[in-house]
Amino acid sequence: MERIRQRMDALRLEADDSAAKAEEYKAKVKTLDTENTQKEQEITSLTHKNQVLEAEVEKLEGQVKTFKDEAGAGAGASSQVEAMQRKIQVLEEEAEESDRTIRELNEKLRQTDVKSGHFERKVQALEQTRDQWETKYEEMAKKYADAQKRIDDFANELGDL
Q1: Residue-wise over 131-149: b if at least 16 C-beta within 10 A, else e?
Q2: Burial degree of 104 (CB within 10 A; 0-12, 13-18, 19+)
Q3: pTM for the model
Q4: What is the mean pLDDT of residues 133-160?
């Protein structure tokens, strides 16, 4: 009986060991389940982040395409800007030439005004001289008419004699 008891004790010890191991394994299973749940949540979170990041990548790729298109258009605009700048430069040069021409014309106009003033004074002087000559002519014509009358009167007196 002793053997049976020993055997039973051994079986009890084994059962206790097995129960302890079972508890330990249950705890491990529970821990692993918890870790598994956490990992699944992490996977779900990472999957969501991945989807968000993929959407962001698509959005950024669209922006890159838009920027590339705009850069291409910008290159066209850049050539337009250069053409406009050349046109502006030509117009500025033409404006400077026009300013120079205007200054020259203003100087010539000033000189013409000075000459015009000089000639106006000469014309006034000549008009005064003409008026003086006309007055002298009228005086002389009157004196001539008087002298002619006297000669005619004298010739008549001589003819009467």
Answers
A1: eeeeeeeeeeeeeeeeeee
A2: exposed
A3: 0.39
A4: 91
